[in-house]
Specification:
The protein is 74% helix and 0% strand. The protein has 175 residues and is an all-alpha fold. It has one domain.
Length: 175
C-alpha cells in the first residue's frame, strides 16, 4: 500500500502542477483555479471539505453511504489541499502527502467523537497546516478501514481519460 500510495500521490501532484503550468483553463476548471491562484478561496474550500469529512465521521453528512462518503470527502480534502499547495508554489517534498496520509492512517483509531474533535483544531494556511489536513484524511480512512490509496484511484483513472492531459501522461511514461 505504501509504495503504491507514494506513486499515486506523486502522479496526482504532477497532474496539478501540469495544469498550473499549462493554460488549459478552457478545458479544465482545475487549471483555471491553479492559474488564477485565489489562495483565500482555495483555503476556504479546503476548510469546508474538512468540515464535511468530519460530518461523515460523525454520521451527519451523507451522500452515498459511509465508506463511499469517506472516499468522496477525503479526496475532496486531498484535492483542495494539493490545489492550495501547488497554487502557492509549495513543493511536493514540503508536504509529502503520502507520508501525511500514512501518519494519520497509522495513528491509533479513535472513536468518532474524539476523532471529530481533532477536526476542530485550527489548521493553518501553510505547509504544516496542509499536512495536518491530510493526516486527518488518513485518520478518517483508518476509522473507516479504508486504504488512503482508495481516495486517489478513481480520480487518477478519470485523469487518464482527459485528452488535454495526454501530454502529461506521455511525458510520464517516457523511458
Amino acid at each position: 500500500m505504501r509504495n503504491n500510495l507514494a506513486e499515486m500521490c506523486h502522479v496526482a501532484w504532477g497532474v496539478y502542477e501540469f495544469l498550473r503550468d499549462n493554460d488549459l483553463a478552457e478545458q479544465s476548471g482545475t487549471s483555471n483555479r491553479l492559474r488564477v491562484g485565489n489562495l483565500e478561496k482555495l483555503w476556504l474550500r479546503l476548510l469546508e471539505e474538512l468540515e464535511e469529512l468530519k460530518g461523515v465521521v460523525l454520521g451527519t453528512h451523507v451522500h452515498e453511504g459511509f465508506p463511499q462518503d469517506i472516499v468522496l470527502e477525503g479526496y475532496e480534502v486531498f484535492y483542495w489541499a494539493v490545489c492550495y499547495a501547488v497554487s502557492s508554489g509549495i513543493g511536493y517534498g514540503e508536504i509529502a502527502p503520502d507520508v501525511a496520509l500514512l501518519e494519520g492512517f497509522d495513528a491509533p483509531t479513535l472513536p468518532a467523537e474524539e476523532l471529530a474533535l481533532l477536526f476542530k483544531q485550527t489548521v493553518s494556511g501553510d505547509s504544516s497546516g496542509i499536512r495536518q489536513a491530510l493526516e486527518l484524511v488518513g485518520r478518517a480512512c483508518k476509522f473507516a478501514n479504508l486504504s488512503p490509496a482508495q481516495l486517489l484511484e478513481r480520480d487518477l483513472t478519470e485523469m487518464r481519460e482527459k485528452n488535454y492531459l495526454q501530454p502529461y501522461w506521455n511525458n510520464l511514461i517516457k523511458p
